[in-house]
Amino acid sequence: MRKLIAFLQQDISVFGRQKQKKLPFDRQRKVIELFNNLFASGFHLGEIVDFLKRSQLLADPYTQVLSDGLLAGKPFSSLLSDLRFSDAVVTQVALAEVHGNTSLSLSHIQSYLENVSKVRKKLIEVATYPIILLGFLLLIMLGLKNYLLPQLEEGNAATVLINHLPTIFLSLCGLSLVAVLAGLVWFRKTNKIKVFSCLAALPFFGKLIQTYLTAYYAREWGSLIGQGLDLPQIVGLMQEQQSQLFQEIGQDLEQSLSNGQSFHEHIKTYVFFKRELSLIVEYGQVKSKLGSELTVYAAECWEDFFSRVNRAMQLIQPLVFLFVALMVVLIYAAMLLPIYQNMEL
Predict the structure, then answer these.
(1) Higher local confidence (pLDDT), 151 or 117
(2) Mostly located where (predicted)?
(3) Secondary structure of the chain in the HEC alphabet?
């Protein structure tokens, strides 16, 4: 009852300000690019926000969020969090504020967002035409089911399949939606180390997830180690970040290090990292070049990740076209087989 009374006593004008509308992905990429270029030109954070406000390169509600954050004394990473950037981007910037190489981190983030933007555009290009074809095909099958098939005196396997195919297709879409929603609920409520361990075991997507996480963590660890931070400091920093997976790995590593287990041995237990990562860490610690070696290895992993994604994009269209071709063959079979049977009689 007290909570209800306190809720009713709140100023209703606050609700409009509580949830800042998320910055669109393309605008996020543009904002990171602007910050990167302006930082490189010698601007400090206050001057950048003032420039964005005066130039109208960013809408007023977003520049107001940045201005309010600056007045509150928030760091750059918190400002991006207020603009609802992803946890991955916010964490990278927060770590850059520690190791001091913000410009390099922004360049990495800009490159990552540009690659993701290309993948998104490619996915839209690849998927749009097949989805339109599937829509037309579904309408054709509904028409056959309601008008043509009832007029055929004799049926066959193709007519039976076409008769039930629209129902099967819509049922599969409904089940897929339920499965996705259930997966999202499970993802939010489950320990993230467990979640990504399960996802890494998937037949196709597992390799993508493994490569992405290896590239991401290798680059961040490499940057921190390269700036002279030791493992206990890095593990402590990980637990302070916004990313839940980052926090859980930090807590797990802290416990393992306190139990006397080495860093590379414990990394080997994470199935969502590539096995080569633990070898790189072990070799780098021996040669005292761990930071630079992790950075080079991360660059290779990022290249491998986007190469895998692009190859996967190229498989979507042929698979959908193959499905459409099979449906067209079924339609012809449903229409022509009864005619041939009547001709033989």
Answers:
(1) 117
(2) membrane
(3) CHHHHHHHCCCHHHHHHHCCCCCCHHHHHHHHHHHHHHHHCCCCHHHHHHHHHHHCCCCHHHHHHHHHHHHCCCCHHHHHHHCCCCHHHHHHHHHHHHHCCHHHHHHHHHHHHHHHHHHHHHHHHHHHHHHHHHHHHHHHHHHHHHHHHHHCCCCCHHHHHHHHHHHHHHHHHHHHHHHHHHHHHHHHHCCHHHHHHHHHCCCCHHHHHHHHHHHHHHHHHHHHHHCCCCHHHHHHHHCCCCCHHHHHHHHHHHHHHHCCCCHHHHHCCCCCCCHHHHHHHHHHHHHCCHHHHHHHHHHHHHHHHHHHHHHHHHHHHHHHHHHHHHHHHHHHHHHHHHHHHHHHC
